[in-house]
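Open question from group meeting: does this chain pack into something compact, or does most of it stay loose? Before anyone orders reagents, we agreed to write out a predicted structure and look at it together. Recording both the input and the output here so the notebook holds the full record.
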Amino acid sequence: QVQLVESGGGLVQPGGSLRLSCAASGSIFSLNVMGWYRQAPGKQRELVATVTSGGTTNYGDSVKGRFTISRDNAKNTVYLQMNSLKPEDTAVYYCNLQWGLINPKDYWGQGTQVTVSS
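Structure tokens returned:
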């Protein structure tokens, strides 16, 4: 059983920063991709950023240059440093862990609310 536990969401003013964390536990394949997705009210879930166990990163266009994803493989933890936050970044942020091509595994956290407002 794999579990993902997120933390670090909250309310921040425009231009501010937040750092999200997601710790994975359970039986986890070492070669995997961890990432963050978000969903705003009335909108589809969208990619924020992903990072492979080898350190390759990928970012959604709307967050490039403002957000940084990183991970600690020893702790099975992924981080999202969010700077220069905008009201349009307001959403529920979900942690994701996936691996495998032939028999893919895909796990989600419960989500953490990020609200950017003055």
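Observations to bring back to the group:
The mean pLDDT is 96.
Residues 28 and 90 are 30 Å apart (CA to CA).
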